[in-house]
């Protein structure tokens, strides 16, 4: 196994810039389910309507990413990134002024149309600038954007939402997003395409869709995201309505999750580069499956144990996400990276949208406010996690075979 090298100064600046940008994207993604209890009450939404709002972002993002995938390797990556991020911020502005269910639904559709491409463009840049032997650590550091959004961004957003209004929480994201946009403009250099000849966009899209090896990754990530979204969609409402937590206690729960992720993501990144991506993913799957089954059963109601269960669950989720993402970037050819990651993002978003809608139709709110059928949701999540582990093992074996083949040829 190749020994991971040290990052250059410019590589560190790239990691910083992409992390700051993804901080706002992840914060937006996490804020809506965290506001589930607030929005159900203030906008008088049914669980089906909230499920539609949650799925609107994902479905819009999935369609947008699929349409953009044919162009993803044609344009200079930094410019491509800035166009989509500017559109994302326009959607956040509409969320910040949303007065009703139809307006918020439209705002989430626009936000998803642009925000859904952000991660795929960022990781295409990572794949261009970092060798495979460094990508576990890079993914771990960038994954800290997720952690920081939970430790800092989400508690602050929920405080603003409870003290002022939920719309002002989106105003915070917009302000931070403008700063992140300026940072990316300054820190990241334009990235020239390695090829000057390109197939027509639809041909490029179809050629990527026809490759069976790519579909192993697409399928694995579809299951990973589907399980995570089903869990997150009504988690805040489950905490407050079923487990009896106050709204003021939610920031502590998400803060604990974020602190766990902040510490775990870079550690799992290093472990993935040193010992292999699959062993780290397998560990995360066992840990998160056990945690989600115990938690969704509703048998743990003490605040301290709820915190501990979330920490354990997200410890496993981080191990899974870091290792799976690092593996995925090693699968496509360089000329396919942008399209491959855009299609992967599209499928993930569509899976997330379907998962949010499924959660909205499976879970019902009783007259006393309690959410029904939550243990069944836990078993569904566990099944998806175990199925994804089998597919990630296939991806890992595929990457190892490709690396051996390249060494033999050289």
UniProtKB/TrEMBL annotation:
Name this protein carries in UniProt: MFS transporter
Entry's localization field: Cell membrane
Entry-linked Pfam families: MFS_1
TM spans (from-to): 12-32, 52-72, 79-99, 105-130, 142-162, 168-188, 215-238, 250-268, 280-300, 306-329, 350-367, 373-396
Database matches in SUPFAM superfamilies: MFS general substrate transporter
Keyword Transmembrane helix among record annotations: yes
Source lineage: Bacteria, Pseudomonadati, Bacteroidota, Cytophagia, Cytophagales
Gene3D superfamilies found in the cross-reference section: MFS general substrate transporter like domains (1.20.1250.20)
Source organism of the structure: Algoriphagus confluentis
Chief localisation class: membrane
Membrane topology designation: Multi-pass membrane protein
């Amino acid at each position: 196994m190749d020994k991971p090298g040290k990052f250059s100064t410019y590589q560190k600046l790239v990691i910083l810039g992409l992390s700051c940008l993804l901080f706002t994207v992840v914060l937006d993604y996490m804020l809506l389910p965290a506001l589930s209890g607030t929005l159900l009450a203030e906008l008088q939404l049914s669980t089906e309507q909230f499920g539609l709002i949650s799925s609107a972002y994902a479905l819009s993002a999935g369609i947008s990413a699929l349409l953009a995938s044919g162009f993803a390797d044609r344009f200079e990556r930094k410019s491509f990134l800035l166009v989509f991020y500017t559109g994302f911020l326009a959607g956040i502005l509409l969320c910040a002024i949303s007065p009703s269910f139809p307006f918020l639904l439209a705002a989430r559709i626009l936000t998803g149309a642009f925000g859904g491409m952000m991660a795929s463009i960022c990781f295409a840049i990572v794949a261009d600038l970092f060798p495979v032997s460094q990508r576990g650590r890079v993914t771990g550091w960038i994954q800290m954007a997720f952690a920081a959004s939970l430790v800092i961004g989400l508690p602050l957003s929920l405080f603003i939402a409870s003290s002022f209004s939920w719309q002002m929480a989106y105003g915070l994201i917009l302000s931070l997003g403008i700063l992140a946009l300026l940072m990316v403009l300054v820190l990241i250099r334009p990235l020239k395409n390695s090829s000057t000849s390109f197939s027509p966009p639809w041909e490029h899209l179809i050629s990527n869709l026809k490759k069976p090896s790519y579909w192993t990754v697409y399928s694995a990530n579809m299951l990973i995201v589907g399980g995570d979204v089903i869990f997150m969609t009504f988690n805040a409402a489950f905490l407050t309505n079923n487990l009896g937590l106050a709204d003021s206690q939610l920031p502590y729960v998400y803060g604990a999750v974020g602190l766990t992720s902040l510490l775990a993501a870079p550690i799992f990144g290093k472990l993935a580069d040193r010992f292999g991506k699959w062993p780290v993913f397998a560990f995360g799957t066992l840990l998160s499956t056990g945690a989600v089954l115990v938690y969704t059963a509703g048998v743990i109601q003490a605040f301290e144990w709820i915190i501990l269960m979330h920490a354990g669950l997200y410890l496993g989720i981080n191990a899974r996400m870091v290792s799976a993402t690092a593996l995925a970037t090693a699968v496509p050819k360089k000329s396919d990276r942008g399209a491959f990651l855009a299609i992967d993002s599209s499928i993930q978003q569509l899976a997330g949208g379907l998962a949010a809608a499924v959660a909205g139709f499976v879970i019902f709110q009783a007259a006393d406010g309690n959410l029904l059928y939550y243990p069944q949701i836990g078993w569904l999540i566990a099944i998806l996690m175990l199925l994804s582990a089998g597919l990630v093992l296939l991806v890992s074996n595929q990457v190892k075979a490709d690396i051996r083949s390249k060494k033999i040829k050289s």
